[in-house]
């Protein structure tokens, strides 16, 4: 009877260790997925900003050449960045 209890305890410990390893693996996988999700969200934000910049370039580019429009948009973006920086400080 005592041997049977010891065997069952060892079996439970073994099952616990396997489940703990599985849980640790799943936690690591979740952390990896979270990191990838964050990177994708950042990429989406960056791409949306590029789209907005291109829309501005197209809007300012009507009637003038693209280089001048691009320079004006770049200047406006720099000015906006400066204003944001001043607001943050």
Features:
single chain; 89 residues; mainly alpha; rod-shaped
Description:
By secondary structure, the protein is mainly α. The chain has one domain (2-88). It contains two helices and no strands. It has helices at residues 2-61, 66-88. Helix 1 packs across helix 2 (66-88). The longest helix is centred in the middle third of the chain and has 60 residues, at 2-61. The chain is rod-shaped and about 90 Å long. The chain starts with a helix and ends with a helix.
Q: Secondary structure elements and their pairing?
A:
Elements: H1 2-61, H2 66-88
Helix pairs in contact: 1-2
Class from secondary-structure proportions: mainly alpha
Instruction: Indicate the low-confidence ranges by residue numbers.
Output: none
Give the beta-strand count.
Answer: 0
Fraction in beta strands: under 5%
Oligomeric state of the chains in view? single chain
Overall outline? rod-shaped
Q: In a few lines, what is going on in this structure?
A:
The chain has 89 residues and is mostly helical. The protein is 93% helix and 0% strand.
